Amino acid sequence: MNQLKVYEMRLKIYLLQDISQEQTYAVFANYIDSCLAKNESLLELHETNCYKQYCFDQPYPLEKDGIYKEGKVYTVRVRTVSDKLAQYFADYLANHYNHQIKGLTVKITIIPQKFISQIFSITPVVIKCDGTGSDRQAKGYWKKCISFEQYEERLKSNLIKKYNRLTGEKMNEDFDLYRQIELKNHKPIAVPYKGRKLLGDKICLQAAENEQAQALLYMALGTGLGEMNARGCGFANYRYL
């Protein structure tokens, strides 16, 4: 199978204004967008409806009151499976700034491809679908329109489509992705997006031991789980066996 590499950039940022934890998804997505916009081919990637090949975490350390403070330094992890994006981020993110964030330094590493025993989302995993009902926030949330079995299939097929697009291969889909899945939240977690809220879940997967599952879950560390990864959704951490 194609051997993808997952690159991780640890970016130190300096905040030019207070930002609430809820706002960080949009604020940091805009920061990355404006950095990509400096390059014509990467601007085209940003504006095209396709898998963006990167994902990012929320800034840390977390603030107890949920407000990241003006004048303080935080670290954000940005990951990608694209050699080109990794090099661009390494070269330009640290020198980029807008009215809310100033980049300071960036350290790039490659996450080793070892046997993964568990993968768990740090930011909510979003699987969108057409919802019904009067509650606007409920529309699009998977529990309102598909079964849990369908949710599992959507989660798996999303990763397979990303892998096929990245590698040019066509993966055999007859395999187990995980041995167990657990939803960690009791109610959906909201992510603000263009004046509305996407609803997602924190999930934990006990990885299957087959080659396809290991390849997909390693890739997911760089692309994110589920949808809207370039908006801050589906960033995952891992444990090796």
Radius of gyration: 18 Å
Q: Classify the beta-strand content into a percent band.
A: 25-35%
Biggest sheet strand line-up:
3-5-1-6
Query: H/E series, N to C?
Result: EEHHEEEHEEHEEEEHE
Oligomeric grouping of the chains: single chain
Number of strands: 12
- What is the CA-CA span between the terminal residues? 21 Å
Helix content: 25-40%
Instruction: Give the overall shape.
Output: globular
Low-confidence stretches: 132-138
Structural class category: alpha+beta
Number of helices: 5
> Largest sheet at a glance?
4 strands, antiparallel
The overall pLDDT average reads 91
Summary, kept brief:
This protein has 241 residues and is α+β, with helices and mostly antiparallel strands.
Description:
The protein is of the alpha+beta class and 241 residues long. It is built from five helices and twelve strands. The strands form four sheets. It has a four-stranded antiparallel β-sheet with strand order 3-5-1-6. It has a four-stranded antiparallel β-sheet with strand order 8-11-7-12, with helices on one face. Strands 2-4 form a two-stranded antiparallel ribbon. Helix 4 (148-167) crosses helix 5.
